[in-house]
Write a structure and sequence with these properties.
heterodimer; A: six-stranded mixed beta sheet; four-stranded antiparallel beta sheet; B: about 0% helix; globular
């Protein structure tokens, strides 16, 4: 079964840092792009960041560029999101999502259960 | 950036009725790289449709997608109680990958 499981969320003060992890199983992790998507309380889905299968290419939403860093360890089948200079507006459930091995199948499936990040003093 | 607009914002229907949800893109979506997702309260989103019209594995055939270019539609032929949820469209053909704001399907 293809599965992704996030961890690492929690309460952090404004200006602080946090690292999210996503453990993947059931597929050849290094062959697939991976993504982070977030959802603020009561709001819609917001794309955050992507990374290619080999890790050479990354992309960020403007709202997190320069503050968040996506990375992956293909030897551990794990995706990361290093978040720094956190703001109140970063408060959200963060979802790890499996993408495709090429643009033609880069839809988001499956999604993890999400991990809640709360930025508050 | 491709901006996706979904309409209506809220749809109030009864079980057994047909639901028609619209997703309009600000630019043509490359090769119909458009997906639809369903999200129920407290749950992660679930893929329903990819490539504008292909159903994901395990999705009932009452769900269908259509459209091309800038106009796309998700149709639920006969609403079941479990279909009342929020539906999002997404384009995955051009970075940044973007989502629509969602359509909430309510029980009337």
């Amino acid at each position: 079964e293809v599965q992704v499981v996030e961890s690492g969320g929690g309460l952090v003060q404004p200006g602080g840092s946090l690292r999210l992890s996503c453990s993947a199983s059931g597929f050849t992790f290094s062959s697939y792009a991976m993504h982070w998507v977030r959802q603020a309380p009561g709001k819609g889905l917001e794309y955050v960041s992507s990374i290619s299968g080999n890790g050479d290419s990354t992309y960020y939403a403007d709202s997190v560029k320069g503050r968040f860093t996506i990375s992956r360890d293909n030897s551990k089948n794990t995706l990361y999101l290093q978040m720094s200079s956190l703001r109140a507006e970063d408060t959200a459930v963060y979802y790890c999502v499996k993408g495709g091995d090429k643009i033609q199948n880069n839809w988001f499936d499956p999604w993890g259960q999400g991990t809640l990040v709360t930025v508050s003093s | 950036e491709i901006v996706l607009t979904q309409s209506p914002g809220t749809l109030s229907l009864s079980p057994g009725e047909r639901a028609t949800l619209s997703c309009r893109a600000s630019q043509s979506v490359s090769s119909n790289y458009l997906a639809w997702y369903q999200q129920k309260p407290g749950q992660a989103p679930r893929l329903l449709i990819y490539g504008a019209s292909s159903r994901a594995t395990g999705i009932p055939d009452r769900f269908s997608g259509s459209g091309s270019g800038t106009d796309f539609t998700l149709t639920i032929s006969r609403l079941e109680p479990e279909d009342f949820a929020v539906y999002y469209c997404q384009q995955y053909g051009r970075s940044p990958l973007t989502f629509g704001p969602g359509t909430k399907v309510n029980i009337k």
